[in-house]
Write a structure and sequence with these properties.
alpha+beta; 6 helices
Length: 245
């Protein structure tokens, strides 16, 4: 053996990584909840009985206190402004913790897709307030060709975000999250380039919903905390005007 690789596995809320020192992590690889697409905690409860029988989760299943932590679930389960605002706040807190534990040369990688501009607004604002700079976005086929949940408007391609630390972390909620008009134009051009490259391959199906998803990913990635000028728009307004590339 050339050497040993040590690994530590911890189960805890991702908004509190206090057991990790600042700058101690090389790679954050995650998959944040897609806004309101899936009820993750409810789905994980299905497997809890097996986890308890294997001794990797506390029992007994009949005890209500041993169910999956529904309140810790980040996905939006309560519709309305309050639920959406909570998703914004908690996702931003998670990204800030990821920023804190990542070393200066480390990277944070995650995938995201959603059909609503509201979901992209939450992600873009959380990123902008985290201190991360998106260095690259790549489209990646995330769904198979079949599936009972698939239909004409289903998004099949994820947007893969590669993020790096960008200087000093912004101070919480201060400032407005904006996107320049030039960045919106560049987002359209980058999406169009992928469209021309992939749309001819019918087998992989880079369709209109996937193109719109990628367009919004580029716009959200360009968001910054700053102030409004004649050359910029609030992030939510920029995403609302994105319909096609």
């Amino acid at each position: 053996m050339r050497g040993q690789i040590q690994a530590a596995i911890r189960t805890q809320n991702s908004a509190d990584l206090s057991t990790f020192p600042d700058g101690s992590v090389d790679l954050v690889l995650t998959d944040p909840p897609y806004f309101d697409n899936l009820s993750y905690s409810e789905l994980s409860d299905f497997y809890l009985a097996w986890h308890q029988s294997l001794g990797i989760a506390e029992g007994a299943y009949a005890a209500p206190s041993r169910s999956a932590p529904m309140r810790a679930n980040l996905a939006v389960t309560a519709k309305g402004e309050e639920g959406i605002a909570e998703y914004h706040r908690r996702l931003a807190a998670i990204f800030r913790e990821c920023w804190r534990v990542l070393n200066p040369k480390g990277i944070c990688v995650f995938t995201y897709h959603h059909k609503s501009a509201e979901a992209w607004h939450a992600l873009g604002e959380a990123l902008a307030r985290s201190g991360f700079r998106v260095s690259s976005i790549l489209p990646l086929r995330g769904e198979g060709q079949g599936g009972l949940h698939s239909y004409e408007g289903t998004i099949k391609w994820d947007a893969v975000f590669v993020c790096r630390k960008n200087g000093v972390q912004p101070e919480g909620e201060k400032g407005v999250v904006v996107v320049t008009k030039q960045a919106i134009k560049a987002a359209a051009e980058m999406t169009k380039a992928y469209q021309l490259r992939l749309v001819g391959e019918k087998r992989i199906g880079f369709r209109s919903p996937d193109q719109l998803n990628l367009y919004r990913a580029f716009v959200a990635a360009a968001a910054r905390v700053g102030s409004l000028t004649p050359r910029s728009l609030p992030l939510d307004a920029a995403l609302a005007m994105v319909f096609e590339c």
